[in-house]
Amino acid sequence: MTTIGIICEGGPCGEDEQVLRHLVGRILPGVAVKILTQGRKPDLIAQCGQVAQALFDSGCDRVLIVWDVFPRWGRPDGEQQDIADIQAVLAQSGIAHPCLYLVPIKAELEAWLLADGSALSAVLSRPAHKVKIGDTKNVEDNDNPKNRLEAVFKRYGRAYTPKSDAIKIVKKLPDKFGVLGKLSTFRKFGWSLTQPC
Predict the structure, then answer these.
(1) Is 40 helix (H, G, I), strand (E, B) or coil?
(2) Domains (ranges, CATH) in the chain?
């Protein structure tokens, strides 16, 4: 059986792990998934070499490092800086594996959750009160999608609870992932899971 390893932010069983595990299962049904969460992005960058090696040593066929470009945690701006820093740590750790992929999410994971209005509508609707939310345009250009997602939930009388609501949203995504399937970073995630290596 193919085993996918993922290194991501957040804590064990948190929204990042739940969302990524579900999405992998939809893209590659039947694969095994090992996810090692690393807390904040600075910790993910610092630990990515040894964690990637541990995942490969444990039998993973490929490993993805998935992180949010924002917040910057006081670092110089940009995705390219994050990639350079991660590559430096991997090189220092002696990791040069053809099946290791870097997947930066523009802004934050919440951009993926905001993209498809039909999924948000399904989560926020109640039997007596149907909700119709439009797709979020240019969602990857939003520098604080988490705040925007919280505002959408608040508008419909609910507080956004990441640990329970994030997975509900991705479970309601239509076939082919709706609008999420068109986002460049999500396409990179799918490519990283399926590209021969």
Answers:
(1) coil
(2) 3-194 (3.40.50)
The torsion angle over the Cα atoms of residues 104, 105, 108 and 109, rounded to 10 degrees, is -120
The CA distance from 58 to 14, in Å, is: 22
Record the pTM: 0.95
| Structure token pair of residue 48 | 């990515």
Closest of 126, 82, 124 to residue 104, by C-alpha: 82
Q: Angle CA(78)–CA(83)–CA(85) in degrees, nearest 5?
A: 100
| Distance between CA atoms of residues 95 and 88, nearest Å | 10
Q: Which two tokens mark 59?
A: 């039998």
Rounded Cα distance, 158 and 150, in Å: 9
Indicate if the alpha-carbon torsion angle 14, 116, 24, 70 is positive or negative. negative
Nearest to 36 by CA among 5, 61, 62, 58: 5
Q: Which two tokens stand for residue 15?
A: 């929204």
pLDDT in tens, 51-99: 999 999 999 999 999 999 987 766 777 899 999 999 999 999 999 999 9
39, 77 Cβ separation under 8 angstroms: no
